[in-house]
Amino acid sequence: MKTWVIVGASRGIGKGFVQQALDRGDQIHASVRKPEEQTVAALWPHAKPGQCHVYACDMLSETSIHVRSSTKGDLTIWLTLRTQ
What we know:
Blueprint: E1 3-7, H1 12-23, E2 27-32, H2 40-43, E3 52-56, H3 62-68, E4 77-80
């Protein structure tokens, strides 16, 4: 099992990466802009309990990304997606 941190996970290719990693049984730490609206249940309803965690992270803020980089566990992959 791999552990992923995916910044920009609520739509587009980021959401697709999360979906694929969940399908493989990997652990996900996904950042979104509005975690109160963009929940695991709303974005990836098939995720197993505890498999995916959603956090607020502004990918344009170095401080915000640094705070999220302190993920616990054995981090395998860090993926940041930015679209404009």
